[in-house]
Amino acid sequence: MTDLGFSVPDLTPMAGGIEFNARPEQIMNASLHLKTPLRILMRLARFKATSFSALEKKITALDWKLHLPVNGCPDIRVTAKKSRLYHSGAVAQRIQTTILKQLGIRTGLKADRNADHTLFVRADHDAFTLSLDTTGAPFFKRGIKTELTPAPLRESIASAMLTWAGFSKDDILIDPMCGSGTFSIEAALSHTGTPPGYYRSFAFETLPGFSQKTWQHLKRQAAETRFLPSHPTIFASDADAGAITAIKENIKNRDFARLIDIRHTDFFTIHPDQISSRGKKGLIALNPPYGKRLKHDTRQRDFYRDLRNKLRSDFKGWRLAIILPAPDDLKQLDLKLKSHPIFHGGVEAVAGIGVI
Fold first, then answer.
1. Residue-range domains of the chain with CATH
2. Which of 13, 44, 199, 264 is buried deepest, with most CB atoms within 10 A?
3. Which residues, 6 or more positions from 12, have their beta carbon under 8 angstroms from its beta carbon?
4. Residues 6+ apart with CB under 8 A from 23
């Protein structure tokens, strides 16, 4: 965020995120460029309410025409903790009815989880916080991948791991268990200087106060600074034919596709000389099978042993970024890697980063 012009004193870390003040164009620019958040929420109000009548009065006092588009019926998601208004469904219904009346929209509509806009309501000890989602689909959905393989890696996690590993535009990347191509696509965006939000749409595009002209200007600026190398710098492979089909489909017709050399082969058959003829070392990014795909038994220990031996014998001096289900798994791998705890799709995991 500091790279985008925000100053450290204006950024307030809190449980679950960072609070900051911003103009609409700054929110749009942050949405275009930030790689790892889940979403940007726009705070609309904070107040206390101990009864439904008090809640309705506070909601009525807000000018919803300033915050929602014409005929906008948001999906309202409520979490309540130790509040007298503890029934989340009843709170959501009262808020929705009050908003719809003010906007002149027919009431009695059922909650729509596919609504264009989402209002997050948090009640904590009778203190309410209302936040309007400006993002829509979470940030990690880049608008690129249409085909997924089992246990897909989130783009935000892949991006964080590439950053921790010091990945740069001059690096070679080997993605030998590529799945649907998350590491490879994130690396391609980095190599071309393409913002992660370049190919997708956002909820703010139809919110009052957000200028479509400004949004298109920001995207044009980003396009002017993109660079497309003429030869492959990313080498993706997988032993599974379905994964190869998926990654090819995901990068089809993308202008960065020529950066990614795709091969249907097993990692244990790959040698760096096949990729870097001049002996240049780069980064290996691995999302190996684990959990349901690799059960916690002898096969897992054998796999980690074979993986360690392969890396040490053929990729000495290369950097490694690997995601594993737990710190004990990282110990089994027995490589000198720095551990980064991560939270991936509701499951705790660990990323190991270092030099082989």
1. 41-133 (3.30.2130.30), 155-355 (3.40.50.150)
2. 44
3. 18, 19, 20
4. none
